[in-house]
Every structure is written in structure tokens, then in C-alpha cells.
Amino acid sequence: MSLSAIEKANTPEDFNELKTKTPPTNSVGFGAIKSAVQQASKYMNAVEAFKVSLKINQKGGFDCPGCAWPDPDDDRSVFGEYCENGMKAMAEEVQKKIIGSDFFAQHSVDELAAMTDFEIGKSGRLGSPMFLAEGATHYQSISWEEAYAKVGKHLNNLNTPDEAVFYTSGRTTNEAAFLYQLFVREYGTANLPDCSNMCHEASGKALSETLGIGKGSVTLDDLYKAELVIVIGQNPATNHPRMLTALEKCKKNGGKIVAINPLPEAGLIKFTNPQSPYKMLTGGTKMADVFAPVTINGDVALFKAILLQLLQKEETEGNIFDKEFIKDHTSGYDAFILDLKTYDFNECVALSGVSEEIIQQIVSLVLSTDKIIICWAMGLTQHQNAVDNIREIVNLLLLKGSIGKEGAGTCPVRGHSNVQGDRTVGIWESAPQAFLDKIENKYGFKPTTKHGYSVIEAIEGMYKKEAKVFFGLGGNFLSAAPDTNYTAEALSNCNLTVHVSTKLNRSHLVTGKEALILPCLGRAEKDYQKSGEQIQSVENSMGVVSSTKGILDPCSEDLKSEVSVVCNIAYETLKNRTKINWLSYADDYSLVRDDIEEVVNGFDNYNSKLKQPAGFYLPNGARVRDFKTNTGKANFSLNKLPNWKLKEGELVMMTIRSHDQFNTTIYGLDDRYRGIFNERRIIMMNRDDMLAQNLEEQQIVNLQSVFNGVTRKANNFKVIGYDIPKNCCATYFPETNVLVPLDSYAHTAKTPSSKSIVISVIKK
Ligand code: SF4
Asked: How many domains does the chain contain in total?
């Protein structure tokens, strides 16, 4: 596919008829039921829909391929443990519209690539392996055996294994992920970029440094028992909808909620629980007690203002800080306090964009308790100072001793069903030596200790033609990645691109010289291998590992499981030199779990523990105040205020999801919780900024970012006046990922800074 065609595909001239309404101040309720039923009835018959809704996220059922929100340990709802967006994900996955050789014979790669991500995603489930030969315009059928051999040949023809990139998306199960990293390491590289590089990598870095583990410390039960929950940089109603049920329980138990977000998201204003007739009739539960409309990337300034108020109270009244906890369990307190005192309260208030009145409301809630949980998502992690953002919120929790006890702690909420599990079982481009030693001891080969490519480094490597083969286990790499045109060119430089997927997406249409699409089983589909029906496992945001087992017959007989694909490619590539009996794993996944038990901490008796209906918790030091940091204690940290200097007319843009979207999968064109309907090429702007730039509602504009001397353009967007802080704006991804520079990322974590990009709005 020609690169200019990509730019053309990314700049459609036509618009749908955009409708906007005043955003609602309530969420879920009848609207969610209606939307879930509509989506289900579009793709499933009544029997299938009933089966799916009875088994999704239920004990012994299958895990929703959506986000990684945990399921209750105890009773699960008989009405269903899923949300509207979980049903959207499921419905599209179990659809019966199958695309194969006929479809690809009718539609050239260029023709498909000229479609929007929404249209491409509606093509249907992939039914059989497809191959795009060098110079060809259409994909054609290929047998699995030929496909495996082709991958093996390309990998073995490379000069070094470091010329290959092995990407993982967060839906890959523990079993497939463990085998994948094992294959890649035996093949001889650590080029294991994964989607967490683009989402919570900064959380992992900040939490490992301060608390000794890169995961959240709380359980679902803690959320119910918290007295104060601060939700920052997260929109649960769209991205983790069942979290609202947990927050509702917290409120019922007397807990308070603070929402910190540039946007007044409906789900943090009010929640109408569709499983409560009383709530449905009475209009739902008020969520946030305090809403702080922070300016984009004003989080450190806001928290410093809060911390300065707490310090002032501590120095005047005492008994604010948990001094015993600080003395026994932390390190760096004095240096932290000394540094904090160098900041000016009024300057922090001004830089936060939040009024002093609201800050004082937050302070009084923080003063009232030490059962404090802070939840966050991309609104904190996709900034250049993302690691500082997260370290600063940990500072507050440490002062209050709100770590490692009931109702208190950290809660980074993962956006993909097994993104945390993938990292736990070894999908890590910079894995610790201890893990590599265990691999060597167990399998008798010495994995490279050279750190591999993260996502950003992989794109650079392909762009510079240092990497020549791209292998994607799930995901939609191109649409998820920043700097779309640059990333597209990088992928097209490859000799081979391979994607293991369930549905067609844009990454299949931006190819290397040769390309393969390998269709795999969906989460709800039964997986039979030689030893019988297989179960797999995933890990949720709170470190619970549980089983997932398909319930429906596969939509095509020519699908393979991800485990089977990985094993066959490993065998095909390494058969002359491997020390591992790869094909045996494909016959019986319990063998994989036996190996994980030997190599990864916390998986003792894995196979038997997986039979426990609610699964099992992995060890978590921060949860029990066993801080495995460089000091052996929880570390206070010193974090700077970001220094934004905007020129006249410049805005800070954040890319966001609409309500009809899960990561790069676009289910529909509406964003009902923001009152935006039927169009995605929009920019939400502050109305005073529109006035200052003389822009009308629905005026068509171009957007431009300039970073390190490089100008990037995204054309044809409609302006919408929205309740967003001054000098801030919001657009949807993947449409504006083209404006996100590859070299603008979080320090140390290399997470693309998609939530704070300086742009200009250009009148047409
Ligand atoms: S909250 Fe997340 S995991 Fe649960 S059903 Fe919804 S999308 Fe799926």
C-alpha cells in the first residue's frame, strides 16, 4: 500500500452529519441496556446472546476480552457480570460474518485501506490464513503449514534475531504469552514490545521505584471499604464500566469520591446501576463529591498544592501525617518535605487550573481519613512527566499511611484484559536477570541479557531498516501507535509483517514486502487440542489470576489458538536447534502452566489453583507493606512541576476514546456520554478559545503539531465547543495519533505522550 494512500485514508474529505447535544449528567441505566441489546442482536441470535451473557466473567466461564476490571471474589451477579462495552466487544467477536479468500479477492489492500477504521473493523471475523505476496495487490489464501514455514524462513534469513520485532497486545492469555516470550528468547532476541509500553509503563516504573512492585496494591474489596477514592485521569463509564458498581458500593458504605479530570465525565457525575430496579426508578447514585477540572497535565501542580496544605496543617496541628508508618516503612521523608517547601502554593494552584476552593474541599476530605485509594489511567500515564505524576500521588498516600492496609492504596486500572498478565509471565523487553536465569536453568539456553525494543524503539528500528520482520500477536499496532505516517513507513520497510488476529484492522493493510494474516480463536470460542478441551488464564488489574474457557463453537474451522500458532512457528523456526518440545505444549496447555509455575514467582500449584472458582491472588509486597525497593522501604520522591510555555493560539491536545470504542476498535460513531453523535473527526475546544480564534461551532479546520522541528498535520476536523479548561482540547484516537511525535514520550518509561501534545488549529 503506498504511503500517500495512508495519508489520504487519514484525511477523508467527507463528514457524516455531526449531531451534538448537551452532555448527560448521568450514565449507564436504560441507555446502556438499549445499546448492549442493540449490539448483541446485530451479531448474535437470542440463544448465543443468552449463553454469552450467562457465562461472561462468571466462575468457570470466559473472561471478557475488554478491559481488566476484576470480577467479584464472592458472589457474581446472576443478571450478568458484564457491561455495555463488554457486550459490544463480545458481540463483534462471536459474529458469524466470516471473511476469507472471496472477500480478499474482491477487495484490494489499497481499497480496504482507504476505508475508515470503523468501516474496516466491520468487515467481519477472519476465517482463514491469508498471504500478500511481494508486489501483489490482493491477499490470497495460504495453508497454515505454508504460513508457518514462511515465517520460519524469514526469521532464519535475518542477519541477527534482533532484526525481528515480536509485539504483544493485552488480550493474549498467560499461556500464549509465556510461550511467545520463551520462543522469542530461544530465537535469540528480547524485542518484545507490548501494549503496556503505550499505556501503564509509566505506572510500572513509578510504582516499582516507590513501592517495589509495578502493579496496584488494592483489591476490589478495598474499594468497597475505602473512605475516600480519588479517580484521576480516568473515564470509568467508558473504559472500565463495572468500576462504577464498585464505586457505588463504596458510596453506599459511606465513602467519598473525588474526580480529577479536564472533562466532566458523565460516569463520575452520576451512575444508574441497571441491575438495581430501585436505582433505575430513582435516577441513580451521585458519584463524585468533588470534581476538579484540572488543566491537561496540571496533576503534579494540583497534588503539590494539596500536599502543601497538608504540610501546613501537620506543622500547625500535628496528627495529619501517619508518622509511625513514615518512620517504620518509608525512606526519603526529610528530603521530600524540604523539596516540597520550595514550592509556592498559589503558583501550584494557578498551574493546576483548579480553584483554591475546590482544592480546599479535596484537602478536607484527605484530612478526614487514611483509608484513601487513588485510581488512575492514561490521563496520568501518557505525558512526558508521567512517572513524576504517579510518584507524586504515591507521596500523598505515604504521608497518610494509606498503603498496605484495608481500604487504602494504589489502583492503576488496566485497559486490556490481560496486559498485566502478559508482563507477569515474561512479555518484557527489559526483563530482570533473575527471570532470565530461571529461563536458562529450566530450558538450558542462555537468553540474551541485551534489552530489547519497546514500542517506540521498535518503530524507530523498522523505520531505519534495522528491524526487518514485524510479528504482532493480537492488537492493531499501527492504529495504536503514535506518529501514524512515520509508523506506517516503518512497517512498510519490513520484509514481512505478520498479524495473529480475530478481525480485520488497519495494521493488516499497511504491510511489509510480504504479509500474513493468521486468524485465531476468540475468547468465547471453544479450544480443542489433542488432550481435549483447553482452558487458559488471565490476570486482572488487581493481580487475580483466573481461568477462561470458551463456550461457543469457533466461527470457522480454520482458526487456530494463539498457543498453537506460537508453538508451530517456534517449531518451524527453531526445529534444528531447539531444546524445547514445542508441539507438546500445543496439545496440552497444563504443561505450559507447569513451566510457568517453575519460572515465574507466585504460580505455585498453578493448575490446581486455577480450578478455584474465583482463581487466586498473586503475591503483592505493597499490599502487605513488604516494599521490595532499593531501600527496602516505600520511597518518597521529588517531582518537578511541568513547564508549559504555549505560544498564542496554541493548545494542549489530549487524545481520548469515545464511548463506542475500545482501544482502536470502533464499535460505532457515537459518544453518547459527551453528547456527540455520528462523527469522530471532531475537536472539543473551550468556548473562550473558540471565540479568541474566531471559530464557529462545527467549523472545519486542520490541526498541526510542531515538535523538534517536525510539522505533523491532521486535516478536516469539526470544532465543537465543550466544557474543557482553557488552552486545552480533546480529539479521538486513532484519528489524531498522526499528530503525536514518536520522540515525545514519558521520561524513562517511553510511553507516548498522547495526552499532552501542543497543537495549532488552522482555519481552512
Ligand atoms: S468492565 Fe471491562 S472487563 Fe468488565 S465487562 Fe466491561 S469491558 Fe469487560
From this structure: 3
